[in-house]
Amino acid sequence: MSKPRLLNRPEDAAPLERDLLVRMHDLMVKARVLEERLIQMYKQGHGYFWIGGPGEEAFNVPLGLLMKKGQGPAYDYLHAHYRQSATLLALGEEPIGALRQMKNTASDPYSGGRNFAGHFSKREWNIAPVSSPIEVQYTMAPGTALAQKRHGGDGITIVTGGDAGTAEGDFASCLVWSSRPGMELPVLIIVTNNQWGISTPAGTQHGETHVADRGRAFNIRTKTIDGNDPINAWRELKEAMEYVRRERKPFLLEAMVSRLYGHSSASGANFVGGEQDCLARFEERLLNDGVLTREQMNSLRSRYTEEMAALARQVREEPLPGPETIWNHIYAERK
Amino acid sequence: MANMAQAIRMALHYAEENLGVTDIFGEDVGAPLGGVFTATQGLKTAWNTPLDERGIIGMAIGLAMAGQRPVAEIQFADYIYNTIDLLKIAGNTCWASHGDWNLPMVVKTPVGSGIRGSLYHSHSFDATATHIPGWKIVMPSNPLDAYGLMISACQELNPVMYLEPKALLRIKGEERIPGEPEDDKSLSKLIDAPLGDRSQWKPQWPAELSAYAVPIGKGKVVRPGSHVTVVSYGRTLPLCKRAADELASSGVDAEVIDMRSLWPYDWELIKGSVEKTGRVLYVNEDTEVTNFGEHLVRRTVEELFYKLLAPPRLLAGKFVPGVGLADTLEMASVPQLGDITAAIRALASEQP
Question: Given B59, B85, B95, which is nearest A142 (Cβ)?
């Protein structure tokens, strides 16, 4: 095998290796195809509602790859939102789970047919259940982070949400609780800014120049980054995570991302023009830099498209949960 | 005998030493105050939070997720309303995640009238709390039960809402908590913080405290009787007992049941009593429209209709926007001893 080709941009201090670029591309394609399949399932009547994150893969894939995966406070906690299928896939999750959740089958691994698509939950990997009310996860993140600070080690809490939801008090709660003097908490506070709140442009709602600027008032280190470039996202996330792991203090990272299919199926889930497509942009770069050929990339996409279609067909035949299961899991019981 | 605040404090001490409680927190819960009602004075894991109720509930959820065992306090139930969606999430997390996550957390909050608390320190929360599935909800009416219910709450795998009747927090009990010293004054000397500078103060906890637990879901007959059943909890419970005692001399023999747990609740106990007496009065002080007592009335009608000698009754707080500060306004807004006595007497003598 030939020596991996290193990508060098003038501003790159530490270039990424080819294997990593290929892996990130693979996961970005996989996540994009998964979301497109979910949208199709919705449109074919195989699900009631779609919400997801096509357009955020360039940020969400590096995030998943950089997380310290495991259960308990020694590992990273993720308080995600519903646009993060790419993060889950990057962590190693199988896409069929998302399809099962879309179809509300009994086999839905995240909610047993009870919750919307994109509402992941996986205790085994510290993935806190995604909830539909936006931004509530920001109030919970300091709790897991406090347990981690107490536990020691380098596990951190990562919380993500959208820009529109930062208007909720929960976001302010997160800034307040994670930055109390002498009791700072290891939280990576992420805002993926797609500049929309359903149909409302951010420019009409937010007086601050950057959402990240709000962290400065709390003496929280902050940065606004281009989240549509996976190489940039990888580097910035790595730096922010290393800071949080080492210093045991919060970091507020705002990633500018795109929203390629609108807010959700409620707004049609059709491809939106005028948004930057992070995957197309990355592929162009991989092509120009000679990392992958167009044929390789096209064939990868076709393979995933066929795989997802086959999985969707499989899921279509799987039974819905029995009505009696409404009584299951209301309470946890001692075993 | 310990008062309810002391009982809760001793239970929390026992729980942080023996049941894995890691954090007791809320606004002014830590030193120097130890809680507005002194229920958290001197506890080693008690700490003060920002003035942010959503943050408090969110912190409890996060801690519970990460394997800690938090006891969070909302200073007055009146201030818990802006956390209602977080309470809903805490209640549905186990169900929504198909059993993947459970939240062993306790939220305690003082409720109800009786301390001249005006509009924002007198609210009840029982009807709202019982409308949020996935929680267990308890409300003691005496120090011993307060101790035992807190022990149970701290042993739970699920979220527990622990409602503290404000009016009863400083009233001494009639039964001793296992391990509590014989003499009230010596108890106070051991565990009550001094006035003034407390910076050097440390409590001396009674060494013999035990895991005395009142099981969640079990009510108690506090006064046996044969003519009418009175079901209550919290502040109105001792009033119902007094009313029943007073009525005994006039030939009305009322059985009084303390629910202690609002969810799950001891229907078998209530049912058995109503089958015996044929008459039931439910008493609480939450506002009367969509009151938790209405649920009990509905269930009584549906399941026990043919056993009844009179319609089941509910005596509750008036459906007004708040409890006014003036004594006359407060007394008129929520059930008082006279109201309860009259209601029991009327029900006992009601003929078709």
Answer: B59
Cβ atoms of residues A164 and A180 within 8 Å = no
CA-CA distance, A33 to A134, in Å (whole number)? 25
Cα separation of B89 and A138, whole Å? 13
Which tokens belong to A34? 């998964």
Position A200 scores a pLDDT of 94
**B161 inside 8 A of chain A by CB:** no
> What's the mean pLDDT when you consider all of chain A?
94
Q: Which residues of B are catalytic?
A: 121
Q: Residue B100 carries which DSSP code? A: S
* DSSP-assigned letter for residue A14: S
Taking the C-alpha atoms of residue A330 and residue B126, their distance in angstroms, rounded to an integer, is: 20
Test the B interface: residue of A331, A333, A334, A335 with most B CBs within 10 Å = A331
Task: Identify residue B118 by its one-letter amino acid code.
Answer: S
Residues of chain A with pLDDT under 70: 1-15
Same topology for domains B4-191 and B220-349, yes or no? yes
Contact at CB, B52 and A140, closer than 8 angstroms? no
B43-52: average pLDDT = 98
**Integer angstrom CA distances of residue A29 from A26, A280, A299, A312, B45:** 5, 10, 11, 17, 48
Q: In what order do the strands lie in the sheet with B228-232?
A: B220-223, B254-258, B228-232, B280-287, B313-317
Count of residues in chain A: 335
Contact by Cβ (8 Å): B134, A327: no
Which residues lie across from A188 on neighbouring strands?
A158, A251
Closest chain B C-alpha to A72 CA, distance in angstroms: 6
Nearest CA in chain A to B103: A332
Out of B86, B98, B133, the one facing A139 most closely (by C-beta) is B86
Q: Which residues of B101-129 are buried (b: 16+ CB within 10 A; e: fewer)?
A: bbbbbbbbbbbbbbbebbeebbbbbbbbb
Compute φ and ψ for B33, nearest 5 degrees. -75, -45
- Per-residue pLDDT averaged across B206-211, rounded? 96
Task: Name the residue among A77, A114, A139 with its Cβ closest to that of B54.
Answer: A139
- Judge whether B261 is closer than 8 Å to chain A, CB to CB: no
User: What's the confidence (pLDDT) of residue B104?
Assistant: 98
Q: Alpha-carbon distance A115 to A113, whole Å?
A: 6
Q: Where are the domains of chain B?
A: 4-191, 220-349
Write out pLDDT tens, residues B212-232: 999 999 999 999 999 999 999
What chain A residue is nearest to B86 in terms of C-alpha separation?
A136
pLDDT of residue A15: 63
Nearest to B66 among A108, A147, A334 (CB): A147
Contacts of B95 in chain A (CB under 8 A): 114, 328-330
**What is the number of other CB atoms lying within 10 angstroms of the CB of residue A325?**
14
Domain B4-191 -> CATH class: alpha beta
Could B101 and A123 be called an inter-chain contact, meaning their C-beta atoms sit closer than 8 Å? yes
User: What does the pLDDT read at residue A4?
Assistant: 42
Distance, in Å, from the CA atom of A306 to the CA atom of A300, rounded to the nearest integer, reads: 10
pLDDT of B236: 98
Stretch B80-104: mean pLDDT: 98
Residues of chain B with C-beta less than 8 angstroms from the C-beta of A173: 50, 52, 54-55, 58
Q: Is some CB atom of chain A closer than 8 A to the CB atom of B79?
A: no
CATH topology of domain B220-349: Rossmann fold (3.40.50)
- Chain-centre distance of CA B293, in angstroms? 15
User: What is the C-alpha to C-alpha distance for residues B41 and B201, in angstroms, rounded to an integer?
Assistant: 10
Q: What is the pLDDT of residues A291-331, one digit of tens each?
A: 999 999 999 999 999 999 999 999 999 999 999 999 999 99
From A138, which residue of chain B is nearest by alpha-carbon distance?
B58
Chain B, nearest residue to A172 by Cα: B55
Mean pLDDT of B38-65: 98
